[in-house]
Specification:
PqqD-rel_X; single chain; globular; HPr-rel-A system PqqD family peptide chaperone
């Protein structure tokens, strides 16, 4: 079974764009995170859904009109692991 991920609830996040970075305050932890692309885009396309890295990569391709490539799923998976370490994304049962 492929691992699924769920982003923190949108009500728990306060977003602020700052040049090429996004500041993201996580109410639950009380921590403000500085995120660079594609992390903010990944959180946005998850929209409260439990998704696999492949599903997220596919949504990014459509939403941001980027070309899909072999590495896109690996890039998303690496960012999901980082976001998980920050407490902004959780692994969930499929």
């Amino acid at each position: 079974m492929t691992q699924k991920y769920r982003a923190a609830a949108q009500d728990d996040l306060i977003w602020h764009e700052l040049d090429s970075m996004t500041l993201l305050y996580h109410r639950t932890s009380g921590i403000t995170h500085m995120l660079a692309d594609p992390a903010p885009a990944i959180l946005e396309v998850m929209a409260g859904l439990s998704l696999t890295a492949a599903q997220i990569a596919a949504r990014l391709t459509v939403t941001y009109e980027i070309e899909a490539d072999i590495d896109s799923e690996d890039i998303v998976l690496a960012r999901l692991e980082e976001l998980s370490g920050l407490g902004l994304v959780a692994r969930v049962a499929g």
